[in-house]
Amino acid sequence: MKWKTVAAGFAALAFGLVPLAGAKAQDYPTRAISMIVPFAAGGPTDTVARLIAESMSRSLGQQIVVENVGGAGGTRGAGQVAKATPDGYTILLHHIGQATSATLYRKLPYNVLTDFEEVGLVTDVPMTMIAKASLEPKDIAALVAYVKENKDKVIYGNAGVGSASHLCGMLFMSALGTPMTTVPYQGTGPAMNDLVGGQIDLMCDQTTNTTGQIKAGKVKAYAVTTKNRLKALPDVPTMQEGGVKDFEIAVWHGMYAPKGTPPAVVAKLNAALKQALQDPKVIARFADLGTEPVSQERATPEVHKAFVASEVAKWKPVIEQAGIFAD
């Protein structure tokens, strides 16, 4: 009888754990949430993250604190989230580099496709090909000719290996069949400072980081990397208009939690994200920066998961062909 009583007690305790776990997920969040941005403060991904974090904080009733954990092309911050406790209190806001890192880095300390729970896509940010204000060519066609004639003199800057500006530069050089001297920086901010100051000639970066500089006349805008011109920059032509065929790239941003985060917690984060993407303040600010939130259909964990897998497959041959890898 005693053994039966003890066994019954253990059974009751075991069954009791299920409602407890459910209750914890139902109460989530009860404290501040850390949103890791794997790049320096003030960059384009940081801008997107802070807009989304502010809106989601209101929905969730707890503050989302943005933490910048830069280094190693975004893999340091992403790796920190991959190893974090899967309780929903540490999340990641990353861009296209989440997919390209799977091929770009030979010794990635996590698996892009299996070590995260996708929360949802956030936005597709167009890019712009920009230059120091004093660069000679007047349009993108003239720029292409200039680069080909002065390939040993033209200096292209980017925010570091694996950054969006690095990827765009690789595509541009591949499209032209012309290499340029490339200078990697520790973040978008320092690269932009040197472009404005005239220390480098060219850079390709997200509209969230370039629109203000273009409108202020601090840099020269040659083209946008989208099929159509942007409402925020109506006078800037597309690459296609300038004769650079089949050149299209947008930097998507997505949100992630560590693998094993309870589905109910992921669902709460996703609901808050979807609400943020419909927030008039977020929509208006995104428009000022030349982008817009993704549709509600694209902002689901399922769509995001499939999209990341497709992007890994898309960029793998591009990176392998370029032969640029990092340890």
UniProtKB/TrEMBL annotation:
The family database entries (CDD domains) matched by this protein are listed as: PBP2_BugD_Asp
Signal peptide region: 1-23
| A Pfam family of this chain | TctC
Q: Which domain of life is it from?
A: Bacteria
Alphabetic keyword roster = Signal
Name the family the entry cites: Belongs to the UPF0065 (bug) family.
What protein name applies here? Tripartite tricarboxylate transporter substrate binding protein BugD
